[in-house]
Task: inverse folding
């Protein structure tokens, strides 16, 4: 099966945000792939792995929309094992979820994947919209916030579990479909393509890291750069950020000298236990 | 002028309490949109009684009641919401950012060609909203340029709506073609854990890399269960394989805001703080007095977990015994 997976670059969440004069200053930021997109890549790779003889089958195409520098993150994804990369030129500040989804529609029309996998949200904008908008524009079924996915041997349907307020929802979708992944998707047995992997197949509970061999191989893999115009789409964001400020700071409280004092304060002062 | 459509989730013959803050936001937005009123949309099967309940909060209710709508599928719900917006001539679609709202509303926005603001915490005008980003490390003021705006609101940011003076009128919506596109809900299973959900728990106890090994989380579980809370972990602990990834609290995990958050052997990396600094009271227990976690903690205890946690369990048991007696 052919899988399209999305990769956004985000500022390293370990770095403190620089906010001055109502603007977010990202000039000193270091960038990395959005964590949930990393899980999406891991999901896509697992769906092409562990065939009967241990072989891989299928194709994983990684797509990013962003500035030229994102090729670095895409190379990283190719080093993880994705087969091809596509970078659609875009200015982060001039993109919103709708614009990204409209670019992705054109990529989907061109690539004709069986499945599109996205992270459930990016850890910068936190909008949690692109997958759902993409599915809506394509008229495809969707399954969001996945904890697991099992693709049927005939690649016509997938059974997913989704994290919902009431617990875990089991949802079957017809393929092609758009899915978005949550934290649990990297559990050992959360992902399986029944055409390849047996019921006992399991992976390590982590997203994989690029091996040296993977990094070398990635250098030879195709990474194609495109413009929205070449795809026949105009980028016109509907949502604009006017200003950004820091939330009120939390101030440090008191040190306590003992467990007894802690429990007494939590009970009598804070009244939380 | 333009009215505002609010997606009203229902359960057990009544409006879902999570929807009420969405109704409040819809009212605020309706005033900004020229006072066209609030239209509640109820979708489901056998939802007549629930729609009556919804009518107590809105000016008008449009009900889509059909066996094929029994489960909340974005594939069937989003087109009905979009149709309701169009037929009401509404200029806004609002809902609470519940798991269903987050699933359905962006898809409806796509069908309407509308821009959407997620997780809104303040309505500043007909097309201007405040929302958090970077896991709450930044607050953004955004403007939506499309003629119709779609908004999901953070449940805790708006007071639940109270009932209106007179109930709104009910009408049946035009069902049109209902096509689930081959999608189907097979079932919903309540989470197996006896513990409350991490996102909703009043008390969260989290462990970090300093716990050293997965088996050491057992003592945190004991404390968690004693307090009736949920167990969490830092990304470092998850990445080290000590606990499953779904316990992760932080910018790259779950965002929590309990009444009490107890951080044990967690240094307090920025990405972890982003996931828990909305908590009402934060307790930090760490052997390193210089750990950044102490900068956000209301109560800090410099101690090893090996010494502090058994003592804490004993002390809480003592407290519970005295309260019980």
Result:
């Amino acid at each position: 099966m052919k899988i399209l997976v999305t990769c956004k670059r985000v500022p390293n969440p370990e770095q403190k945000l620089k906010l001055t004069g109502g603007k977010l200053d990202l000039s000193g930021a270091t960038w990395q792939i959005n964590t949930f997109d990393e899980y999406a890549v891991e999901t896509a790779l697992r769906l092409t792995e562990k065939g009967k003889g241990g072989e891989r089958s299928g194709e994983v195409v990684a797509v990013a929309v962003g500035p030229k520098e994102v090729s670095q993150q895409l190379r990283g994804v190719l080093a993880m094992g994705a087969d091809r990369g596509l970078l659609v030129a875009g200015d982060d500040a001039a993109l919103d979820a709708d614009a990204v989804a409209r670019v992705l529609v054109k990529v989907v029309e061109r690539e004709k994947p069986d499945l599109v996998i996205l992270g459930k949200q990016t850890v910068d904008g936190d909008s949690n919209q692109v997958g759902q908008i993409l599915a809506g524009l394509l008229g495809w079924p969707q399954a969001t916030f996945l904890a697991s996915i099992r693709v049927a041997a005939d690649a016509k349907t997938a059974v997913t579990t989704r994290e919902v307020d009431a617990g875990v929802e089991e949802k079957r979708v017809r393929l092609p479909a758009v899915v978005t992944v949550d934290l649990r998707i990297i559990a050992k047995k959360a992902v399986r393509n029944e055409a390849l992997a047996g019921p006992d197949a399991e992976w390590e509970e982590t997203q994989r890291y690029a091996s040296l061999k993977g990094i070398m191989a990635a250098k030879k893999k195709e990474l194609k750069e495109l413009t929205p115009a070449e795809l026949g789409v105009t980028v016109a964001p509907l949502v604009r950020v006017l200003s950004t400020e820091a939330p009120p700071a939390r101030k440090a409280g008191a040190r306590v000298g003992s467990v007894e004092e802690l429990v007494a304060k939590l009970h009598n002062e804070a009244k939380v236990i | 002028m333009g009215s505002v459509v609010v997606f009203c989730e229902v359960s057990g013959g009544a409006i879902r309490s999570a929807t009420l803050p969405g109704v409040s936001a819809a009212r605020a937005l309706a005033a900004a949109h020229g006072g066209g009123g609030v239209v509640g949309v109820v979708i489901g099967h056998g939802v007549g009684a629930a729609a009556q309940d919804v009518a107590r909060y809105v000016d008008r209710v449009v009900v889509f009641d059909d066996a094929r709508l029994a489960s909340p599928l974005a594939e069937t719900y989003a087109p009905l919401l979009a149709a309701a917006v169009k037929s009401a001539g509404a200029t806004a679609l609002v809902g609470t950012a519940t798991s269903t709202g987050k699933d359905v509303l962006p898809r409806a926005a796509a069908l309407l060609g509308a821009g959407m603001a997620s997780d809104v915490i303040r309505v500043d005008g007909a097309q201007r909203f405040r929302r958090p980003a970077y896991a709450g490390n930044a607050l953004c003021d955004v403007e939506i340029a499309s003629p119709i705006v779609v908004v999901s609101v953070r449940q805790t940011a708006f007071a639940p709506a109270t009932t209106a003076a007179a109930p709104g009128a009910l009408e049946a919506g035009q069902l049109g073609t209902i096509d689930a596109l081959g999608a189907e809900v097979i079932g919903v299973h309540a989470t197996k854990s006896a513990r409350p959900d991490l996102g909703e728990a009043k008390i969260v106890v989290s462990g970090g890399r300093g716990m050293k090994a997965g088996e050491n989380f057992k003592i945190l579980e004991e404390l968690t269960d004693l307090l009736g809370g949920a167990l969490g972990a830092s990304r470092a602990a998850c990445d080290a394989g000590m606990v499953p990834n779904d316990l992760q609290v932080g910018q790259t995990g779950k965002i929590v805001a309990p009444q009490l958050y107890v951080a044990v052997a967690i240094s307090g990396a920025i990405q972890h703080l982003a996931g828990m600094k909305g908590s009402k009271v934060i307790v930090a227990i760490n052997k390193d007095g210089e750990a950044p976690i102490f900068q956000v903690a209301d109560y800090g205890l410099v101690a090893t977990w090996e010494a502090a946690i058994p003592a804490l369990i004993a002390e809480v048991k003592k407290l519970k015994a005295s309260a019980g007696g």
Summary: Chain A touches chain B through 86 residues (CB under 8 Å).
